[in-house]
Amino acid sequence: MNILITAGGTSEKIDNVRSITNHSTGRLGKIIAETFLAQGHHVTYVTTAQAVRPAEQEKLTIVPIETTKDLQEALLEQFDQTAFDSVIHSMAVSDFTTETTLSEEEFIEQLSAKLVELEQPTKQQLKEFLHQGLAEIGETVQDQKKIPSKTDRLLLFLKKNPKIIAMLREKQPQAIVVGFKLLVGVSEEELIQVGQTILEKNHCDFILANDLETIQGDQHKGILIDATGQTQTAQTKAEIARLIVENVENKWRNKK
After folding, report:
1. Does the keyword Glycoprotein apply (predicted)?
2. Hey, which end of the chain has fewer CB within 10 Å, N or C?
3. Rounded Cα distance, 13 and 21, in Å
């Protein structure tokens, strides 16, 4: 099989020396990739510089990315070149990316300049005006290579990133798609319910639902949910990897 795996966590630049990221190490993605490789499959591995990765080998192709935009562009390029048998989307993708950054003084100056245009506005008019003003301020071009640290407060504008999982089925209709959902401190019932919702919404074949509070070192409880609502549970990263590989292989054989 030809497998594409995303792993690690994206970063979003604030300036040339600072960024926002998450704590994903890519360890689970690495083990999944290694398990597929051990079965003789070809793996295209999309990952970040900070994440761990499998050792270089003949059937492994590494595609490095940094931001969510990089990820989107890299996937579109790969999808244009290859019809993958399966896409395993384990990467922790940033929900938001940086739009612009302003010092407290710059923000107050820009917002004040807009507010003086109003004369005795109603509450609704003021809300609409503020929404418009913040949207315009958010479009301020951030061209400093390193933002000065002299201000007491730094205001960071963030805008929503596209949902990468939402495009997988459209771009790879033939692929067996495995998505991942991480929650924190929820019941198993809620974890499964949310996982099923994500699966149905994004037309995945499987979702691996897990809770951050159950992840400690190699201990990693994961619940694999299929399109019929059936679940299988694993207790370690290695077990999760075997569960995913076995289910993808079985579904692939049944499709032939």
Report:
1. no
2. C
3. 9
Domain end point (choices 141, 160, 179)? 160
Q: Which residue's entry shows tokens 């690495």?
A: 30
196 and 70: one domain? yes
Same domain, 185 and 143: no
pTM metric for this prediction: 0.88
User: 109 and 210 in one domain?
Assistant: no
C-alpha 177/C-alpha 85 separation (Å) is 9
| % pLDDT > 70, the chain | 98
Co-location of 138 and 187 in the same domain: no
Amino acid in position 119: E
25, 132: one domain: no
> How many structural domains are present in the chain?
2
* Average pLDDT score over residue span 32-41: 98
Residues 6 or more apart from 108 whose CB is under 8 A from it?
none
Q: Is 229 left (phi over 0), alpha (psi -120 to 50) or beta?
A: left
191-198 long-range contacts, CB within 8 A, separation 24+: 191/223, 192/223, 192/225, 192/231, 195/223, 195/225, 196/225, 196/229, 198/165
* Domain enclosing residue 55, as ranges: 2-95+162-255
Cβ atoms 179, 198 nearer than 8 A: yes
> 25 — phi, psi (to 5°)?
-95, -20
Dihedral sign from CA coordinates of 206, 244, 49, 169: negative
- Does residue 190 contact residue 181 with C-beta atoms inside 8 Å? no
Sign, CA torsion 198/204/205/211: negative
